Amino acid sequence: MNAFHQTRDNTDSLEQMLSMLLDGAVEVLDISPDLHDTAVRRYKEVGAWLAENGNPGWEIHSQGSFLLGTVVRPGTESGEYDIDLVCRLPLKQESTSKEGLKKCVGDQLVAYRGWKQRQGHTDGPDSLEPRRRCWTLGYPSFHLDVLPAIPDEKHRPTGILLTDKNLHKWQHSNPLGYADWFRKRSEQSRALLEKLHANVAEVPEHHIRSTLQRLVQILKWHCMLFFAEDTDNRPPSILLTTLAGRAYRGEDDLFTAVRNVLAAMPRLIENREGQWWVPNPAHEEENFTDKWNEYPERRRKFLSWFDEISTTMDSLSLMESKGLDVVYSRLVKSFEAGPLMRSYERYAAREKASTVQRMSATGLLSATAVGPRRKPNTFYGQHPGPRG
Question: What SS3 string covers 168-227?
Fold first, then answer.
């Protein structure tokens, strides 16, 4: 959803100005359509290979930020996007082991990579590596994580069990159920439903972002910057997404939605008999703050980040009548100047055009927009995102 396409009368409110600046900035941070389409093509080809060459009944689907529409550009120009592919085999838990399941899927990926090389195809994966829960295929600018899984008999129809070489027990998850929950939370916005109905024949749905999707992108962006030098303690994006999704109440104004979500977040973090707990809304047995109980420092770092972004938003809310330049200068203290500069320039040009139009109608001279004094960065962030 692009706030710059909204119409207005005369002067925008502070909330509208901030919403447009933030929305325009995260739009710059979106994955480019070309790279998005390339990643999806690789995902489909790998998925088709697994489905056709594995045993009957193998099912493939995506998960994570690509499925949710909350991708944020990596922290550096050399950083990579990631797209997750779940490969679910129709096996019972007692008929396989985590090691056997991972090897079974890995053998097919080795065969796929070998086939691409023998055929002389230049679009095959540059690398194939085993990781904790997945196999990672490396491509220029992104990597594809393939997660072996089996059905979770106690949580049908979409619950799954995942491997993890560092943990003894199978890991519960439900990415399809989670995506359905997130979509329903997004659709609380009347503006999103109106856009989808108006543009369904013109624009692919993944190019239309809901207020909740943009809100999550803002939280992930700020968090990425805050933890630029401390990636090990950075909160997982699924935790931010879940807290935001549960706190969201259908606001259409982006800045208002961010402030309201931040105000509600602390109440959504439970303490169950001394254990910190944020449940997966699609699978109550999955806890998105399980690492806090093992590594208390991670909770302390999360609270530091939360205090920082809350303070930023509160201070911005007090800047009524301060003007575009002042609001921009405050934003770049907590966010990147590069994406915000692009957003600022678009907003300023829009304001100038509106002012010229109004003044021309009265015979007065037109006003000019004054640019910010801060020189923008030419890079995005400071670190590559960690792999799964």
Answer: CCCEEECHHHHHHHHHHHHCCCHHHHHHHHHHCCCCCHHHCCCHHHHHHHHHHHHHHHHC
Per-residue pLDDT of the chain (388 residues; tens, 9 = 90+): 444 444 344 478 999 999 999 999 998 888 888 888 898 899 999 999 999 998 889 999 998 898 898 988 876 665 678 889 999 999 999 999 999 999 999 999 999 999 999 999 999 999 999 999 999 999 998 999 999 999 999 998 999 999 988 778 899 999 999 999 999 998 887 655 565 444 444 334 456 789 999 999 999 999 999 999 999 999 999 999 999 999 999 999 999 999 999 999 999 999 999 999 999 999 988 899 999 999 999 999 999 999 999 999 999 999 988 889 999 999 999 998 889 999 999 898 887 776 555 555 555 443 333 344 434 343 333 333 333 3
Contact 196, 178 (CB under 8 A): no
Task: Tell me how far apart the alpha carbons of residues 250 and 315 are, in angstroms, rounded to a whole number.
Answer: 23
Q: Which residues contact 287 (CB under 8 A, 6 or more apart)?
A: 275, 277, 278, 279, 280
> Cα-flanking dihedrals φ and ψ of residue 241, to 5°?
-65, -40
The model's pTM is 0.82
Nearest to 105 by CA among 143, 145, 152, 63: 145
Helix 237-247 with 175-186: angle, nearest 10 deg: 40
Q: Where are the beta strands (DSSP E) in the chain?
A: 59-63, 81-88, 127-130, 135-139, 142-151, 160-162, 171-173, 270-272, 275-277, 279-280, 283-287
Token pair recorded at residue 318: 């007090």
